[in-house]
Amino acid sequence: YCPHHPEYGPPEYRQRCQCRKPAPGLFRQAARDHRIHLAASWIIGDKFSDVEAGKRLGMRAVLVLTGAGREHLRRFGDNPDYPQPDYIAEDIAGAARLIPALPEDHSDQDASTSAS
């Protein structure tokens, strides 16, 4: 996890860093440590910062509507300033059912596809 925050916490941790999402630091470290091919990976999250982090690394992204997902979709969906998810799922179980059912290369798929 990233112990840093740009505004809060002890002074030694109050900083912008490369490990706090959507920065790629922790993802790159995990990829090195565990031999993960990021471009062949997925990120599933309930925030647009999750989507942005994955997109920065060439990953496909599923936004789940649980947690902060519905609010983030309402606030940031269709906003060109935010990277949009490839897919939207009701919850993590829906995302888990969706991913294996998709073709290996689905770059031409519509971003509004969802799973329940």
Order of helices and strands: HEHEHEHE
Report the radius of gyration as a whole number of Å: 15 Å
Quote the average pLDDT.
Answer: 90
Low-confidence stretches: 106-113
Task: Describe the secondary structure blueprint for this structure.
Blueprint: H1 25-34, E1 42-45, H2 48-56, E2 60-64, H3 69-76, E3 87-89, H4 92-101, E4 114-115
Parallel strand pairs: 1-2, 2-3, 3-4
Can you tell me about this structure?
With 116 residues, this protein is an alpha/beta fold. The chain is built from four helices and four strands. A four-stranded parallel beta sheet has the order 1-2-3-4, with helices on both faces. Strand 1, helix 2 and strand 2 form a beta-alpha-beta unit. It is globular, with a radius of gyration of 15 Å. About 7% of the residues have low confidence.
What characteristics describe this protein?
alpha/beta
Brief summary of the model shown:
By secondary structure, the protein is α/β, with parallel strands linked by helices. The chain contains 4 helices and 4 strands.
